[in-house]
Amino acid sequence: MIRSLPNSPLYKYGFRVYVTLFFIFLLMPLIAVSVLAFNDTSAITLPWKGFTLDWFFADTTERLGLFADEDLLRSIWISLQTAFMMATLSTIVGTIASLLFESFTFRFKNLLYFFAIAPLVIPGVILGISILLGSTFVGAWLDTHLGIDLEIFGPGFWLVVLGQFSFGATYAMLLVSARLKKFDPELEEAALSLKATRLESMWYITIPFLKPAILGAFVVTFLMSFANFNTTIFLVGSDPTLPVDLYSRIKFSSTPVLNAVSFMIVLMITIVAIISTFMKRKNR
Amino acid sequence: MDGNKKAFYFLFIPVALWLFILIILPHIDLFLSSFKPNSGEDVYTLENYSAFFADPIYWRTFINTASYAIGVTLLAFVVSFPIAFYLVKVISPKVSGFLMLLLLIPLWIGELVTIYGWVILLGEQGVINESLKFLGLIDHSLPLIYNNLSMTIGLLYMSMLFMIIPIMTTMESLDDAMIEAASDLGASKWTVFRRIVIPHAMPGIINGSIIVFMLVIGDYVAPNILGGKSSLWFTEQIYNQFLSTFNWNQGAAFGFLLLIISSATIWMALRLSGQKLDKVGD
Amino acid sequence: MDHILELRGISKYFGDFVASKDVNMLVEEGEFISVLGPSGCGKTTLLRMIAGFMEESEGDILIKGKSMKGVSPEKRPVNIVFQSLALFPMMNVYENVVFGLKRKKIGKEEARELALDMLHRVGLDGFEKKKISELSGGQKQRVAIARSLVMKPSILLLDEPLSALDRKLREHMKVELKELQKEIGTTFIYITHDQSEALVMSDRVAVMNKGLIEQLDTPHNLYNHPKTAFVAGFVGDNNRFEVASREGEKVVTKRGWKVTKPDLDFDPTVMYIRPEAFIVNPEGEVADSEIFEAEINTVLFDGANTKILVKPEGRDEILIALPQNARFQALKEGDTVRVAVAYDNIKCYKE
Q1: Which of C216, C234, C252 is the last residue of a domain?
Q2: Is C310 in the same domain as C341?
Q3: Do B258 and A126 touch (CB under 8 A)?
Q4: Residue B72: its pLDDT value, please?
Q5: Does C259 lie in the same domain as C224?
Q6: Which CATH number belongs to the domain containing residue C178 in this structure?
Q7: How would residue B150 be classed by pLDDT, with cut points 50, 70 and 90?
Q8: What's the confidence (pLDDT) of residue A1?
């Protein structure tokens, strides 16, 4: 049944077979894209025609590799910038929100907390269209009533950042709160007793304690932003992020360069996952 | 308590701005826009909603999507539960740590890359068909892609991890001695699962189900890329209104309906299980 | 001259629960005051109100004659040594001690001097760079105290800071703390549930029960002249007898023991006699004492604290301390002893 109990062979091996099949199912698509990134053909799938690095480095009219494809590089760059801004904003506001909800009581706190966690259960599409409608409305209102035409309210880089931040802050808040719950409030009282103001005590005592969680929240929200499609698609302007670019290529113009990009992402994420696992183990 | 007050406002203002500008206001706008005609006239009308009920393709897709999402959620539970149990309770923690790492990788890689992986696997000349042909098991490609099967695979793949992780979290707090005691008292494996393990993991199961349901009903990539002509997904209607026909007000009405059905289902799940929304994120 | 601390009718309610009820206290500069009581008696609440972490429901707290109403913790001239010590784990010893000085905007050089001097006083020279996790229990204790004392508070509040230490170290720290307080001269308010800590260290002890201060007195008076039944029972070992009635000069316990207690002007419900108040096998005549004979039930050997239990036929069991005297070493179970207790040492109360 469990580690400590004896099990019948059927139970034991049956379970093992199932788990193996599950992990094959889980890893198959990742292995497929990774291997086929090196296939010497213009088709995205089998048959295997030999090994090549063309889909990374070639710069010809038939074969445009990842590092020569300026559009692709540009969308990757935009995605990185977006993710950095979104993760920074989300982590800051998420940490602030977690401090607010964990250490203060105030009127309408429950209602406010409800809105803060609502993005967990609001489909990304809805967040996308709501923010598009909201920003268009505000932009139009400013234009007609005050004669100000602000670009920030139209689809584009900043709207994508804000749209992703709207739910990123929720996840950052939850990650930071999980650690804040383990914080000994006597430490903060000790700081107050030593004549620190409330803000000083948060800055010098609470925040350093939260550091690992804050770092974790930054990484998580960065990756969330980098992978986001559902919300981004409505807010993106003329410069697509990587997922938006990938989507249109998958739909309309698949070449193995997609496999190459996918391989790079698989590689990066694997490295990040390994590092974070080690960091977690070290923290324990 | 002036230092206290200062700290409070310092924290309160950014949070209030975030929630008011990016959560509350846009949803109010969504609600109001859904009652405006696309002509731009400044009147309120029900025409966007009557259009929804008048055209069977809209409401059938809507019902189809919602029931399909419930189905995928159940499927995700059936597939995930043994895995969560295995990782937490059966194998050694060291191996389990490694398998957890493998679980997290597809999660962070993101939907587009993994769905693209499935395109490569399931396509007419995809890895699976070519392999089967190579092995001589089939002569002609099997219709694996652009149908409900491939769409289901895609939806299951991108959502099941959100089922496994909350279940694992609750399962970790289940004392092994409880299972041992039940076995000692003569309970069969089935009884142990039914009476001990599943009730204990229930909060995780509910959390996982809520998130999976929300992800599936709001997904666009899997149905759009892997689904066939008949696998109409309601989010596609919203995308069409916003990005093809530019009828934003109609799209807002669809969006609002989607928000209502997903909120209602989540609310019902929470009601039936006696849980609170605050716990969903834990 | 104002008192360093004055509590004027402090009450604190949490809904229906009364944590403090009409607490009054006057503390002189330089005094070592303990607040002693069982857990849940409201002593920690009282301390937190003095520190400003909680607001009193009624009454006023005055420090050096100034009302603390609405004054936040960081503006009060008091510091706390916490039960958990609450040393900042992300800082080393020096950074912990200098933390408060920095908040007071004291210059770097001066702060350094003050901090090093304080570390010297608590005997932690050369420990500045040590991490908190590298310190022993006693050293952590000293850092916590140094960190607070360096702020030169008018009053230092200590919330059971010795409770986490093992017994031996606790005995040692008691003496050390008392001497440190004498040397520095800061007023200490010390919260504890351990009567030995309170009696050994304090100038005066406030015994608290259910939010009320039952008696505020010197350790000597508290022990020898407890004013209430609770104090008699809580401070030191005591024999408790439920009283059924009074017949003239005699008090009758529920088990039927008739004890002479002259000059009572009320009907007591309970009677206390300390184990060491009994004189075993007194020589010659003893005046103004209750005298009786009883058989030894059990000898409880504990070195210098050896006691015997006697149970006169059908009456209350009595615990009697044996003086360390060769005369009594031969006493064993079944022996009959003659016991005397002075009327003055019989304490009667109405609960």
Answers
A1: C234
A2: yes
A3: yes
A4: 92
A5: no
A6: 3.40.50.300
A7: confident
A8: 62
Nearest one of C92, C84, C42, C66 to C155, comparing CA atoms: C66
pLDDT of residue B62: 85
Domain encompassing residue C308: 240-349
Q: What is the pLDDT of residue C124?
A: 85
CATH code of the domain in which C292 resides: 2.40.50.140
Determine whether the interchain pair C103/A190 forms a contact, defined as Cβ–Cβ distance below 8 Å: no
Residues C310, C270 share a domain: yes
Interface test with A, best of B12, B15, B78, B171 (most A CBs within 10 A): B15
| φ, ψ for residue A276, nearest 5 deg | -70, -35
Q: A97 to chain C nearest CA, in Å?
A: 23
Q: Which CATH architecture has domain A71-254?
A: Orthogonal Bundle (1.10)
Q: Considering just the CA atoms, what is the radius of gyration of chain C in Å?
A: 25
State whether C177 and C28 are in the same domain. Answer: yes
Q: What is the mean pLDDT of residues A9-38?
A: 84
Same domain, C183 and C330: no
pLDDT tens profile C233-269: 888 888 888 888 888 788 888 887 888 888 777 888 8
pLDDT (tens digit per residue) in A227-274: 889 889 888 888 888 898 888 888 777 777 888 888 888 888 888 888
How far A105 CA lies from chain C's nearest CA (Å)?
14
**With bands split at pLDDT 50, 70 and 90, how would you rate the model's confidence at A221?**
very high
Nearest Cα of chain A lies from the Cα of B204 at a distance, in angstroms, of 15
Measured in angstroms, the CA of B7 and the nearest CA of chain C are apart by 13
* B56-279, CATH topology level: MetI-like fold (1.10.3720)
**Quick check: B3 and C72 CB within 8 A?**
yes
Instruction: Single out the residue of B104, B131, B107 nearest to residue B120, CA to CA.
Output: B131
**For chain C, how many structural domains are there in total?**
2
pLDDT tens for each residue of C303-334: 778 888 888 776 778 888 887 777 777 777 88
Would an 8 Å CB–CB cutoff place C74 in contact with chain B? Answer: yes
pLDDT tens per residue, range B51-87: 778 888 788 888 888 888 889 999 999 999 988 888 8
Q: How far is it, in rounded angstroms, from Cα B255 to Cα B34?
A: 8
Residue of B120, B130, B162, B238 to mutate, testing the A interface (most A Cβ within 10 Å of its Cβ): B120
- 176-195 in chain A: CB under 8 A from chain B: 178
Strongest mean pLDDT among A1-10, B247-256, C109-118, C275-284: C109-118
Identify the burial level of C11 via C-beta atoms within 10 angstroms of its C-beta, where 0-12 means exposed, 13-18 middle and 19 or more buried.
middle
Judgement on whether residues C274 and C167 belong to the same structural domain of the protein: no
Contacts within 8 Å (CB) and 24+ apart, C289-292: C289/C340, C289/C341, C289/C342, C289/C343, C290/C259, C290/C260, C290/C340, C290/C341, C290/C343, C290/C346, C291/C338, C291/C339, C291/C340, C292/C338, C292/C339
Residue of B nearest to A44 (CA): B120
Q: Are residues C78 and C197 in the same domain?
A: yes
DSSP letter (8 states) at residue C74: G
Residues of B in contact with C70 (CB under 8 A): 1
Residue of C nearest to B4 (CA): C72
Measured distance CA(C327)–CA(B143) in Å, rounded: 106
